[in-house]
Amino acid sequence: ASQAAIAEHAKPSLSDEQQTVLTQALINVNSTTIRGVTISTVLLSADGFISGLAAVTKDALDLSSSDIFLLAVCYEATRGNRGGGGGKKGKTNGNKHGNNNNNNN
Predict the structure, then answer these.
(1) How does 4-14 read in b/e, with b if 16+ C-beta sit within 10 Å?
(2) pLDDT tens, 62-90?
(3) Could you read off the pLDDT of 31-65 as tens digits, one per residue?
(4) N or C end of the chain: smaller count of CB under 10 Å?
(5) CA-to-CA distance for 3 and 9, rounded, in angstroms?
(6) 64 contact partners, CB below 8 Å, separation of at least 6
(7) What would the 3-class secondary structure string for 58-96 be?
(8) What is the pLDDT of residue 62?
(9) 26 and 63 in contact (C-beta within 8 Å)?
(10) Does residue 98 sit in helix, strand or coil?
């Protein structure tokens, strides 16, 4: 997809930041076709949270020749505006039961 096509398609609904993510997603996408289904994945990093990534992913799907488009954007969460121990959840990420794994015997 060309920059002009991306800009034209994304302009009405995406912010500048979202358009940048869309451009990076389309540049860095990895695609695989399995049994006639094209699956595209991309992992990007950002300085902080970016809202509206569902719209970015939809536009990436529409602009690519993919049947499935998985977009992941990683960023380091900050405690700044959350207050009240907002960073605690990250310690048990991926384990909804916390550190109780050894107590289930």
Answers:
(1) eebeebbeeeb
(2) 999 899 999 999 998 876 654 444 444 44
(3) 999 999 999 999 999 999 999 999 999 999 999 98
(4) C
(5) 10
(6) 1, 26, 29, 31, 40
(7) HHHHHHCCCCEEEEEEECCCCCCCCCCCCCHHHHHCCCC
(8) 93
(9) yes
(10) coil
pLDDT the model gives residue 104: 47
CA distance 34 to 22: 24
**Tens of pLDDT, residues 86-104:** 444 443 344 434 444 444 4
Amino acid letter at 66?
S
Distance CA 73, CA 69 (A): 13
Q: How many CB atoms neighbour CB 41 within 10 A?
A: 16
Q: Is the distance from CB of 73 to CB of 45 less than 8 angstroms?
A: yes
| Average pLDDT, integer, range 16-23 | 93
Bridge partners, residue 30, by sequence:
41
**Comparing C-alpha atoms, which of 21, 70, 65 is closest to residue 41?**
70
